[in-house]
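Wed. Picked up where I left off yesterday with tRNA-2-methylthio-N(6)-dimethylallyladenosine synthase. The coffee machine is broken again, so keeping this brief.
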Amino acid sequence: MLTKLYIKTYGCQMNEYDSDKMADVLRACEGMEQTDKPEEADVILFNTCSIREKAEEKVFSDLGRVRPLKQAKPGLLIGVGGCVASQEGEAIVKRAPYVDVVFGPQTLHRLPQLLQARRETGLPQVDISFPEIEKFDHLPSAETASGAAFVAIMEGCSKYCTFCVVPYTRGEEVSRPFADVMRDVEELVAQGVKEITLLGQNVNAYRGAIDDGDDIVDFAFLLQAIAALDGVERLRYTTSHPKEMTRRLIDVYANTPKLVSHLHLPVQSGSDRVLAAMKRGHTVLEYKSIIRQVRAARPDISITSDFIVGFPGETEQDFEATMKLIEEVGFDVSFSYLYSPRPGTPAAELHDDTPHEVKAARLKRLQDRITELENEVAQAMLGTVQRVLVEGTSKKDAQELAGRTDNNRVVNFRGSPDITRSQAMIGRFVEVKITEVVRHTLRGELVLSAS
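Structure written out below (tokens, as returned):
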């Protein structure tokens, strides 16, 4: 019986969620336990993401590093899942014949069957089909000792932005039934989870069937239903799309205190010309109107975003429009990247004659300004008392605890001198006074235990 599982996760929170589910499936079916040492593993899985530049090459590089482990232990099984697996399929096995299973994001629940078929036949197994919602019907109940948990409410995206591979690797938008999502949340709450993060490639496009009929509920309804559950104390979601920021959803910020004062709303560019080329489906003016409405509903909300710099044809004027938008909105912590063409997407065919060094200089300027704005928000938090959900020990100091504020800032602080009492705070809300701003994090002092 196989016992040890090693998973390397690339990319976004959806992939982190999928990796957790892979571990859940193999624990439930084969009694496997995770290890952080690939040399100890009986099964090694690479859960890939194809959004970043040269994603395929990074996967094959990692596969090359574990090949000697397979040579030393022939019974070791190696699998590649996620978006690169969906995109490349059997080509992965042709290039790396020592790979045993290849599976897509929608077929991770079939892992036990794929591994068993590989053992019985001796042949590599590839399943990159799109069975839509089936995955969620075959996943075991989640297990968590933390106070926070993810719940995927939908798969795929139907927006077809010209730079994005998600519709091709994860399929079009498919929402889980309302009752299924509520059941998952209730099971997590019964385990003591206090903070729920709803996940989807385009999460606010959620349209879930109710009572096995033709009635459909929207994302705003789902948020309010979850917030009404006893035991749910904080509610987040990611990642959203401006086209799906409805008036009903914006109103939830005004009447649902459990929904955090943080909105991650990717804009990608501040130029209407570039947004049109990206096929984003909204203008800069429409985006700013959404932000104004959200801030009217929740004045203290933190707005974060994604930016692509150097999209094909981006001019200096286009880039300056993005910088202008950054000043007008006042974004908090945001993510920005140089455009990299993804095979099979329309943007990969666009002419691009802007030198790399020009793009790199633009990216640095944008990131520097975002960092300044991020620091301004952090400085404004100095001396305030924040309600923090303790998620575990600090990554840099095992004697400290780490948690997250309502506006999604990580805070490190000393817990109780008694280690047992300090560990008991994990999964609970505490109040922390912010005393210091450190790069990308905060430091604080414990005030009192809240819940």
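Quick read: DSSP finds 15 helices and 22 strands in the chain.
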